[in-house]
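Fold this sequence, please.
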Amino acid sequence: MLISAVVLNWNGQEYIEDCLTSLSLLQTGDHQLKVIVVDNGSTDASVDLIKKKFPDSTLIETRENLGYAEGNNVGIRLALENQSDYIWIINPDIKLAPDALISLIHASAKNPQYGIFGSKIYFFPGFEFHKKDYAKKDLGKVIWYAGGLMDWKNLIANHRGVDQIDTGQYDDQKETDFVTGASMFIKSQVIRDVGLLDAKYFLYFEENDFCQGARKIGWRLLYVPESVAWHKNAQATGVGSPLQDYYIARNRMLFGLRHAPIHTKLALVKESLSLLSGGRPWQKQGIKDFYLGRFGKGSYA
């Protein structure tokens, strides 16, 4: 069985080495793991680092920033061409435990009705949202993702257990509403059924859009706590940045009007009108671009 891990890099010099090193140390059993790194037009020294320290990985250089969705699609297409059985999307600011992959493989083998699988993900020590709330002994055990919960009424995607110290409260495998793209283990057949990530999004909501598309045609999603990873949160984009304002405002409209129930869609349109008049500058622009049909990279520069 062949698994292709797709890692999308964009100026990841400070953290991608930890990610790729952890991939190289994974337990694979009798299975073959190929690592595909897609560089999304980086301007730092990360490409040279990858070439020098990880020559066994396949490196694809796009020469421009295609966005998260299309950048990952570049690697997914190659994985499908190589007849991969599974495609594992991994963010470059993720560090994986040695048994992270084999646990996902075992979970898939035992649950054939499921098509997308997600790891238990902790904040990497020092990257917690509320750093002062934790004792030193708790660092590395603060949960970032233990399954996904969709609040469809308010169109909010919540990470189950976020900010909690892990005491074993989320140690059972459980069906989940969405799997985070930080570690998304996908049967190739799901991608053939659903299609690639929608490049309209460029950044944010694309993996949840993919998950909801899979659910609509009968695939189920599973949280696998035996598969563990650590996340250096929001390294490429920055929490609360103008970039987030723009893409979240625009893409939340696209996602919500595609997947949410009718009462939520009506509320979303009403909210968008409020943002047009009283939102922050890049939120306003994001809403304008949604209504003007400017997707992909859009107006953000």
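The CA atoms of residues 264 and 270 lie 10 Å apart. The radius of gyration is 19 Å.
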